């Protein structure tokens, strides 16, 4: 069951969204919204209100070296998970602490 959630997405934009109660995760390509919701609820113990998914397909890229080799990028699926107000996921609290310290300085 833990294979549904691959890893959290930790970027500046995802940390901004985490303050509003929206958390970003890379999920398995065949994961459904219901399965993502259940996995978040069991792993972190929070109540999920909404799940949005986005799928990115592989693209063919060419290298700019003399050999001109081409390769495919990896496909992935990400989920934006909204939880109830007042609840938090501890993975995303680290970034908030750093920003609050920077503002105080």
UniProtKB/TrEMBL annotation:
GO biological process, one term: translation
Pfam families: Ribosomal_L23 (PF00276)
Record's GO cellular component terms: ribonucleoprotein complex; ribosome
UniProt KW keywords: Ribonucleoprotein, Ribosomal protein, RNA-binding, rRNA-binding
Cited SUPFAM superfamilies: Ribosomal proteins S24e, L23 and L15e
InterPro entries noted in UniProt: Nucleotide-bd_a/b_plait_sf, Ribosomal_uL23-like, Ribosomal_uL23/eL15/eS24_sf
Sample GO molecular function, one term: rRNA binding
Function summary: One of the early assembly proteins it binds 23S rRNA. One of the proteins that surrounds the polypeptide exit tunnel on the outside of the ribosome. Forms the main docking site for trigger factor binding to the ribosome.
Subunit comment: Part of the 50S ribosomal subunit. Contacts protein L29, and trigger factor when it is bound to the ribosome.
Entry-linked HAMAP family: Ribosomal_uL23_B
Similarity comment: family membership: Belongs to the universal ribosomal protein uL23 family.
Protein's name according to its UniProt entry: Large ribosomal subunit protein uL23
Phylogenetic classification of the source organism: Bacteria, Katanobacteria
Gene label: rplW
């Amino acid at each position: 069951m833990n294979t549904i959630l691959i890893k959290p997405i930790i970027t500046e934009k995802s940390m901004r969204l985490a303050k509003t109660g929206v958390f970003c995760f890379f999920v398995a390509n065949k994961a459904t919204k219901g399965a993502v919701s259940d996995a978040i609820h069991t792993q972190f113990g929070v109540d999920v209100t909404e799940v949005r998914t986005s799928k990115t397909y592989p693209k063919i890229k060419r290298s700019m070296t003399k050999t001109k080799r081409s390769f495919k990028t990896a496909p992935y699926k990400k989920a934006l998970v909204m939880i109830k107000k007042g609840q938090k996921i501890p993975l995303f609290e680290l970034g908030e602490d750093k920003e609050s310290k920077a503002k105080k300085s």
